[in-house]
């Protein structure tokens, strides 16, 4: 199996998947789709992790949650995802102190169809790589980052790139929000 990660300028694949949105009894699950975000004119950051109940994954998920308001303030919806089931996601959230109060959905790609279409399915175990996609309000991928299974990502860098993309201007190396952009 050869990985061919979807890239910048491509339309993010349409999906409608179950997700864990709460740990409150009877309100745990909902179906979510990218179309929901597009119809509301929102940016989307979708980040994938390999497996629930592991070691690096909750550090990333908790850090995205710690920065949730940063994304919301930028009209951006966060979606976390893995190939585990919604029931595994719910159990993990209930049993991990850092995951109980998540403010974003945990998408369950149990068929692995979305991960496969994105080209982020690890060929041996058939689990997702640590991939992050920034998708604009029209459904176009504007940034992709894929880490190997053992390396966590930098959430502040995701926010920095989102800020740069939202300026729709030329942003130099190490640019951060509030600094001058480049003029031609």
How would you describe this structure in keywords?
184 residues, alpha/beta, seven-stranded mixed beta sheet, 28% helix, globular
Helix percentage range:
25-40%
Q: End-to-end span in angstroms?
A: 44 Å
Biggest sheet strand order reads: 2-1-5-4-3-6-7
Unreliable spans? none
Summarize the structure.
The chain is about 30% helix and about 20% strand. The protein is of the alpha/beta class and about 180 residues long. It has a seven-stranded mixed β-sheet with strand order 2-1-5-4-3-6-7.
What does this protein structure show overall?
It is a single chain. The protein has 184 residues and is of the alpha/beta class. The chain is 28% helix and 21% strand. The chain has helices at 34-39, 56-66, 68-72, 86-95, 113-118, 155-167, and strands spanning 16-20, 29-33, 43-48, 76-82, 106-108, 130-135, 141-147. The chain has a 7-stranded mixed β-sheet. The longest helix is centred in the C-terminal third of the chain and has 13 residues, at 155-167.
List the helices and strands and how they pair.
Layout: E1 16-20, E2 29-33, H1 34-39, E3 43-48, H2 56-66, H3 68-72, E4 76-82, H4 86-95, E5 106-108, H5 113-118, E6 130-135, E7 141-147, H6 155-167
Parallel strand pairs: 3-4, 4-5
Antiparallel strand pairs: 1-2, 1-5, 3-6, 6-7
